[in-house]
Design a protein that fits this description.
By secondary structure, this protein is mainly alpha-helical. The chain has a domain of about 110 residues. About 65% of the residues lie in helices and about 0% in strands. The chain is built from 4 helices and no strands. The protein starts with about 35 loop residues before the first helix and ends with a helix.
């Protein structure tokens, strides 16, 4: 904090964005002067801070390309890496957008599959009930036909026992009684 570039009143975040070496070692860092680096980072932060945040964005990083383009327009002396960063970000954004669209499509398909699954499950239950009803009706009709057959046979046997002779011609009464 002894460095004149790292004043406590400066609008910087020392722990995250700026490089402020101790005053005695300041000559050893010749890549960027601290004030220039802080100015660049502050300017990018200010651009992003000026964007109205209450606006609903599909992506939280959406204002970044606008900020980087504005940074290039205001500071044309910036080195080429800012355009490379913008290109890389654009590629990353395209990949993210494609993956998000794919994810949304998969979610839509998943919802449709769930709805189909629910419909098929309900239809399965309905068909199970219909099958059980049909099976019960089949058993009922089998018993009814068996009772009817036994009743008819009983009537025929009783009728043959009461009659003095065959009523039907050509021995048809015996055929009925024998079966």
């Amino acid at each position: 904090m002894d460095s004149p570039d790292c004043e406590p009143n400066a609008r910087t975040r020392h722990s995250q964005n700026t490089v402020c070496p101790p005053h005695e070692h300041e000559d050893g860092f010749s890549i960027h002067p601290s004030n220039e680096l802080a100015e660049k980072l502050l300017w990018a932060e200010d651009i992003l801070a000026q964007e109205p945040h209450p606006k609903a964005h599909d992506d939280p990083c959406e204002p970044l390309p606008v900020g980087l383009k504005g940074l290039e327009q205001v500071h044309p002396d910036l080195p080429q890496p800012s355009t490379q960063i913008l290109g890389l970000y654009s590629t990353l954004w395209d990949c993210y957008s494609a993956k998000k669209a794919h994810s949304q499509r998969l979610e839509t398909e998943n919802k449709a599959l769930r709805a189909t699954n629910i419909h098929l499950s309900q239809e399965k239950e309905i068909l199970k009930h219909r099958y059980a009803n049909q099976e019960a009706l089949l058993v009922y009709f089998e018993q009814a036909f068996e009772n009817l057959r036994l009743g008819i046979l009983g009537i025929c046997k009783d009728w043959e026992g009461c009659s003095p002779g065959p009523v039907f011609e050509h021995g048809s009464a015996q055929a009925i009684g024998d079966s």
